[in-house]
Design goal:
The protein is α+β, with helices and mostly antiparallel strands. The chain has two domains: about 260 residues, Metal-dependent hydrolases (TIM Barrel, Alpha-Beta Barrel), CATH 3.20.20; about 80 residues, Immunoglobulins (Immunoglobulin-like), CATH 2.60.40. The strands form three sheets. It has a 16-stranded mixed beta sheet that branches. A two-stranded parallel sheet has the order 7-8. A two-stranded antiparallel sheet has the order 9-10. It is globular and about 55 Å long. It starts with a strand and ends with a strand. The structure holds zinc ion (2 copies). One zinc ion binds next to loops.
């Protein structure tokens, strides 16, 4: 077994500094109560939480603060982490994805391919989309956004039920997005993370009582991103270095997404073995064949995806399989609902 230091956290949340209902102390406490090791905050168009000094360590829990960029039409939402200032609000999405890249910051395309029927959606909830993800600057995407799915499935008719059962809606990442992601990885490296997009929005239901939809702590017990680090990660590390460790890991793809609602995925591993070499998620190797291995904390329906197609489906907690060259990732389901989604491992043929 490897000696990775596994960090479990949530990405993408809003505070009162944009359209969330919680202040920073409340959100931080909710994250700690939910058992997170880290949280990445992303208010719309502001890093006020950062300038007020909330970025950093709380014992061994780490809070990183970036922000969510939008274009002048409120489309093409893009999370940016590692910038020292908010960019000019007039930039188009093509300009800001380039600017984030040029400044060496981490950019993540938020809720791609969001679809909502404007006729059926409750007022004030128009779809927010990316017209295309095919830009070389887009290197990381949100593969699974809890809030976005809920919004897609919420209509005037079912909103009462939906408000009371926020986590029951998002059962899987979007098929269309998974397909795009697998295809993109045939040509280049695009890694993925899971996003909660927590707002804890307070909504009056039928004019009767007010309820915070997606309370922070509930959301932090849904879509999580597990980072596998080589190094220890605790409050002895300088704040700036701690941020760099998280952002570098997200870029690298040595991480996986889980839905905590289906079970705690801590301890899950997926890697390839070629001779004496171990290849991790997000990595590639030149080889005609390799052995893929996975360990799960409990038995689940494991799907091995090769070049975008289902290659093998097996109910297990321990996978070991010899495979030809290809681009592989793994999904695990519990009761036909998505639990774990990994980044790709690339076995590129042509070894001599
Ligand atoms: Zn957004
Ligand atoms: Zn958001």
């Amino acid at each position: 077994m490897d000696n990775f230091n596994e960090l479990v956290g949530c990405i993408h949340a809003h505070s009162i500094y944009s359209d969330g209902s919680g202040d920073y102390p409340k959100i931080i406490q909710s994250a700690i109560d939910a058992g997170l090791d880290y949280l990445l905050m992303s208010d719309h168009m502001t890093m006020k939480g950062r300038s007020e000094g909330y970025n950093g360590w709380y014992d061994d829990f780490f809070l990183g603060i970036g922000y969510e960029i939008q274009d002048p039409d409120d489309q093409h939402h893009y999370l940016a982490f590692g910038l020292d200032e908010v960019l000019d609000a007039k930039l188009t999405h093509k300009e800001y994805i380039k600017e984030v890249e040029d400044r060496g910051a981490l950019g993540i395309a938020a809720h791609p391919f969001e679809e909502r029927d404007p006729e059926k959606a409750p007022r004030g909830m128009p779809p927010i989309n990316w017209t295309s993800l095919d830009y070389p600057e887009i290197k990381v995407i949100e593969l699974w956004n809890m809030m976005s799915h809920w919004m897609e499935k919420t209509t005037l008719r079912n909103q009462f039920w939906n408000f009371l059962h926020p986590r029951s809606f998002s059962t899987h990442p979007k098929t269309k997005l998974l397909k795009w992601w697998d295809k993109a990885n045939q040509d280049r490296k695009v890694t993925a993370i899971g996003a909660v997009d927590a707002h804890a929005t307070k909504i009056k239901i039928l004019g009767l009582f007010e309820k915070a939809v997606f309370d922070y702590k509930i959301m932090f017990k849904s879509i999580r991103t597990h980072l596998l680090l080589d190094e220890p990660f605790d409050h002895h590390i300088e704040e700036e270095d701690a941020e760099a460790i998280i952002y570098d890991n997200i870029r690298s793809g040595r991480n996986f997404i889980s839905n905590y609602r289906r079970g705690d995925a801590r301890g899950f591993r997926f890697w390839a073995q070629s001779g004496s070499q171990a290849i991790q998620m997000g990595e590639s190797i030149q080889a005609d064949e390799a052995k893929l291995k996975a360990q799960l904390p409990r038995k689940a329906h494991v799907k091995l995806i090769r070049n975008g197609d289902l290659y093998k489906k097996i109910y297990t907690n321990n996978l070991e399989i010899d495979v030809p060259a290809g681009i592989y990732r793994l999904e695990a389901e519990v009761k036909q609902r998505g639990w774990i989604y990994t980044n790709h491992i690339k076995i590129k043929g042509g070894h001599n």
